[in-house]
Amino acid sequence: DVKVTQSSRYLVKRTGEKVFLECVQDMDHENMFWYRQDPGLGLRLIYFSYDVKMKEKGDIPEGYSVSREKKERFSLILESASTNQTSMYLCASRIRTAKTYEQYFGPGTRLTVT
Amino acid sequence: QQQVKQSPQSLIVQKGGISIINCAYENTAFDYFPWYQQFPGKGPALLIAIRPDVSEKKEGRFTISFNKSAKQFSLHIMDSQPGDSATYFCAAGDYKLSFGAGTTVTVRA
Questions:
Q1: Going along chain B, which residue ranges are E strands?
Q2: CA A91: distance to chain centroid?
Q3: Is residue B61 classed exposed, middle or buried when 0-12, 13-18 and 19+ CB atoms within 10 A define those classes?
């Protein structure tokens, strides 16, 4: 059974703080993703990593960066948190195969920036 | 600009009824059309998916209908049950997915 875990379920940070969101998957998946989920907007891709140390910007990368030093771990970094980054953050992973594009999601981290 | 448009935003259906959610996409290069189901406090989980070479796919009470020429696809939930109450997201793409805004389905007992 694929398991994607995220370091925190709830996080409260102050404006201007540096914030780290951690995601770990246990299925040796090459691809990992960070999304943010907002009501009425669905899931929007922030960054994508297709393998270790490889990354690609998604649709809304501004204000975020990522790090992928090990295959199982993908970190999302908010360099200077702002109130408009208050959101639910979802991590996902998938195995690189031609047969399926299925992504497996973690439970999410609800981040509040005050 | 949202590449996948989903409607309705929410719907209420009686137990045993049919729930229908519609999605439209822009990019004709999209190769994979999944539906994800999300319960409160959980991440989305794949429910059912279809490729563009097939017009319909059925898994149990869940059916995807796909219209390539109209660039539209829909999810039908037959014999809706209270346990189906969740938020449903359509998506389109390939190794990267564009998601719709989501539909909250409430099934009344």
A1: 4-7, 10-14, 19-25, 33-38, 45-50, 56-59, 62-67, 72-77, 86-93, 97-99, 103-108
A2: 4
A3: middle
Residues B23-80: pLDDT tens digits? Answer: 999 999 999 999 999 999 999 999 999 999 999 999 999 999 999 999 999 999 999 9
Question: For chain A, which residues score pLDDT lower than 70?
Answer: 98
Reported as a single tens digit per residue, the pLDDT across A34-43 is: 999 999 999 9
B10 to each of A42, A47, A65, B36, B90, how far by Cα in Å?
13, 29, 34, 15, 14
Binary contact (B42, A107; C-beta < 8 A):
yes
CA distance A108 to chain B (A): 6
Q: Give the closest of A31, A50, A106 to B43, CB-based.
A: A106
B44 touches chain A (CB under 8 A): yes
- Nearest CA to CA, how far is B10 from chain A (Å)? 11
Residues within 8 A of B (CB atoms), A 34-93 only: 35, 40-45, 48, 50, 58-59, 90, 92
**Contact between A37 and A87 (Cβ < 8 Å):** yes
| Å between B107 CA and nearest CA of chain A | 20
Compare CB distances from B95 to A101, A104, A107 and report the shortest one's residue.
A101
In 3D, which of B97, B90, B42, B88 has the Cα closest to residue A105?
A: B42
